[in-house]
Write a structure and sequence with these properties.
By secondary structure, the protein is an alpha+beta fold. It is about 30% helix and about 25% strand. The chain is globular, with a radius of gyration of 29 Å.
Length: about 950
Amino acid sequence: MTVRIDVTAPDDPRGSSVVANARLVGVDGLTSCRVTRVHHVDGALSPEELDRLCREVLIDPVVDEAVIDGVTPPQGRVVEVALMPGATDPDARELERAAANLGLPEIRVVTARRYDLIGDLSDTDVATITRRMLANDTIEISTEGELPAEFAGAASADVRVDDVPLAELSDDDLLRLSKNRVLSLDLTEMQAIQAHFAAEGRPPTDAELETLAQTWSEHCVHKTFRARINLTHTSSDGEVTVSSEDGLLPALRKVTEELDPPWLRSAFVDDAGIVAFDDHHDVAFKVETHNHPSALEPFGGANTGVGGVVRDIIGVSARPIACTDVLCFGPADLPDDELPTGVLHPRRIRDGVVAGIGDYGNKLGLPTVNGSVLYDPGYVGNPLVYCGALGILPHGSHPTEPQVGDRIISLGGRVGRDGIHGATFSSAGMDASTVDHVGSAVQIGDPIIEKGLIEVIERARDAKLYNAITDCGAGGFSSSVGEMGEDLGVEVDLSEVPLKYPGLQPWEIWISEAQERVVIAVPPAKLEALQTLCDAWDVEVTDLGRFTGDQRLVVHYGDTGVVDMPMAFLHDGIPRQELVGAWTDPAPVEVTTPVPTAAQVLQLLAHPNVASKENIIRRYDHEVRGGTVVRPYVGPEADGPADAAVLKPLGTEGHKAVVLSNGICPSVGRHDPHAMALLAMDEAVRNLVAVGGDPDQVAVLDNFCWGDPTKPDRLGSLVRAVQGCTDGARTYRMPFISGKDSLFNEFDGEAIPGTLLISALGLVPDLRRAVDSAGMQTGDDLWLVGANEGALGGSLASDLFDLGATRVPTPLHDPLPRYRAIHAAICDGKVTAAHDCSEGGIAVAVSEMAIAARLGVSVVVPLDGLDPFTALVNEAPGRLVLSAAREHRDAVGAFLGDHGRHLGEVTAGDDVVFHLLDPVQGEDSNLEPIRIPLADAVSALTHGPSGPTKGATA
C-alpha cells in the first residue's frame, strides 16, 4: 500500500524566494507561494506505525502542518516536481533508513515538491516559473497538478555483453561511433583501439570499449597536458618565437622535483597532495572542478563536486577537515534575450551551485572556509565550479601498495545509471543538445553515506585493515580498479555489485560514476574485521574480486565474460598527441584616465567581483569542528572580507595552524596568460602572508579551466599559462603538489576566458599572532608595502570604466624578501591588521579595511610617477596595506626597510579620505582629497551595484 504524506511549513522561506525570483524572470503576478514536501511511502505499515513514522521523523509539530494519506487542498495553481525514477533521492533513502532504525516494516519512499502558486497568473506565467525556477528537465519531471508516485524497478535484468565490431569501420565510421557512444576519443585513438583488437582477432566488447574511453579520457589521463606541443609566440611588435614543449604536466612535476623541500610528503602521485604539518601529522589538499555537470544541473553538479573532492582526501587516508570553493558565473543581471538557447540563466546556476555546496559540506559537518566568486560574460555558457578540501592524517599512515591476493573491496554507495559518461562528457564541449545526449552524466550526491565512509576509513586506516585505497570517481570502477591494479592485474565479478535498481548492463555497472564510493585493497585475513567496522557505521561492503599478479584486467558478470585485456594497453596504449599552439601578444593601447572621484571608489566597491558575498557565504557553515581562527568575514560587524582562512586542526598540539588562500585573475589572462599565472600566484601568497602565513613554507595547486585545446589560440594561451606557473614556482620557491585541468569549456564554439586558479596551503607558526583585515585601532599607522605600476590591463578599473587597457602589471622578480619582512613584523606582534591590494588597488584595499574595523582612515596616495587615478586603482603585484601602533613606527620601518612606506593613519572619524598629490607639483601640492562617508562605503560593499553613493565628495 502506498500512502502520500504532505508536510508544509507555512513560513518556509523557500516560498518567499520563489516569489522574489519570479519577478526576476518577468512574472509580477505571483503574490505568495506555499511549498510542500511530498512523501510517497510504500509498505505494510499499520496506521499506528505510520503515525509513529510521521511524529518521530517527518513532522515538527511546532512549525509543520501535515496531511497523511491524502492531498493538501490546493491554494492557487499547483505544480509538483519530482526526481526522475532511478535518480539518487537522499531524502527518500534517509526516511527508509529511519524507518528501519525505528524497527518498522521495510518501506520504499519517493519524494516530491509541491508549489502552490497564488496570484494573478496566466498559463504562460506558470510555465515560465516551472521551467525557469522550479524544475530542471535534466533530472526532474514536473506537472501542473498531482504527480503519481513512480518507484524505480521492474526493468529488465537480462545480462547482455555486446561485441562492437571495429575491423571494417572507416575513419568516418570510427568517429561516428565515438560521438554516438559519447566516448570523446579522436581518430588516432579509435584507430589504436581498432588495431589492438584486430591483432587479437576479435572485436572489443561494449565494456572494453567503454573502459578504454574512460581511462583515455581527457578528464582521467590529461592527454593534452602530456602531449608534445609546438608553440608559435608572436610579440606585440611582430617578433616570432617558435618553441616546443615536451609535455605540460612533466614540466610542472619537474619544477617540484627541483625544489624538493623537506616538508613535502607527496606530489602528483595520489588523489591529493600531502605536506608536513607538525612532527606527528601531515595535511592533504586537493581542488577539483565540476563545470560541465554544474552547467546542466547546478545543484547536483556542485553537490557532487564537493563530495568528489572530499573523497579525494579520503583516498589518501586523511580525515577531511575543511572545504573551499571558487565560483565563476555569467552576470547575474544578464537580460533574458541575451541568454543562449539551451543555457540556464547565470542567476539560476549560481543559486543552484551555492545550494549544492552548502548542502553537502554542511551535512558532512565540514566548514567551508575560503573561496571567491567572479562574474564575467565569458562564463554564461560554461560556469566554473572549483571545489577544494583539506584533510589531516598521521604521518606515514597512507598505504599505497596492494598485494597479490588482496581482495578488491568497494565501500559506500550503490550503483545506478547516474554518472555514466561523466568522464567522457566532461572531455568535450557543450551545445544546446548536450543535455539530451548525456543527461545520465548528471548526479545527485548523498552526503550521509559519505559521512559514514569518512568514519570507516579513518578507523580502518588506524587498524591497518587495507594496503591501498583510491576514490571511485570519474570512470567508476573501470578507472579506480583499473588504476589500482595497473602493476598487478585484477579479476573482478560484477554480479554482486549492489544496484540502486535492476536493469543495468555490465558495462553500465562498470563505468557508472554513482557517488560516495571508495575502493580498497584488503588482505583476506582482515575482511571480517572490516565487515564488523562497516556494519557499525551502516556502510555497505562489496567484494569485487582480487589482485592477480598477471597484469591483465579481467571482468566477469557471473559466468559471462565482460572485459579481458592487458593492463599495458589500457594504460600505455594511448597514442601521444602532437598539438600546435599559437599566441599573439595584444598591441599596447594608450589609455586616457579620468580624474579620480569618490563616486568611482564607490563603484569599485559595489562591483559584483568586489561587493560582499555574504549572501552566499552565510549559506555555508564555517565554524563547525571549532578550528576556524580567521573566518571569511571579520570585524565587529563580521562583514569585512578576510584575505585567507586560518584553521587549527583538532587533535594537534601547540599553536601551529594551517592557512588556505587562493589567487585568480582571468581578466589578466585575456591579455597575457603568462603574467596571469604569475600574478595569481602572487595574489595567493599575498593573501596567505596577510594573515600570518610563512612565505617560506607554501605549497600550491593549479587548476586550469580552458577551452578546446585542439584550437591553436586556446592551446597557445594554455601553454603560456603553464610556463608562467613553472616560472612562478621557481621565483616563489613554491612546489606544485597537485592540480587538475578541465578543458573543452565551450558552448557552441564560444570558449570561456582561460582561467587559472592557484590555491595555496601554508602554515601560521603561531596562531596567536594571526591577523586579519579588521584589527587596526584608532591612531594606528597605515603602511604600504610595494610600489605602484601604471599598467591597468586586466584591472577592475579598466573593465568598469571601459578604459581598454591591454598592458598588464609586471610580475615580481624577487618577491620573497618583502614577504619575509611582513611575516617577521607579524610574528613579532607589531602588525595589527593586514590586507592585500588586488581588485581596485589601494582604493578598495584601504576602504575594505576601514569597513572591516568600522573606523575612519586618512591616507596619502603615493604617485610613483603616475597620474592620480592610476595610482589610486592600479593592481600592481606584491602590495599590502598594514596597520601598526604608532609607538611601533620605528620597529615596523626597520622590519620593512625599502619594501614599505608610511601611507596614513587610522582616525576616530567617520570618513575614508584619500589625499591625492598633484602629478605636476608632486609633494609640494595636494589636489582636492576624496572623502567618502564610511556609511556609504559600507553600503556600497554590502549592497553591491544598488548601493547608494550619497554624501561622497571629491
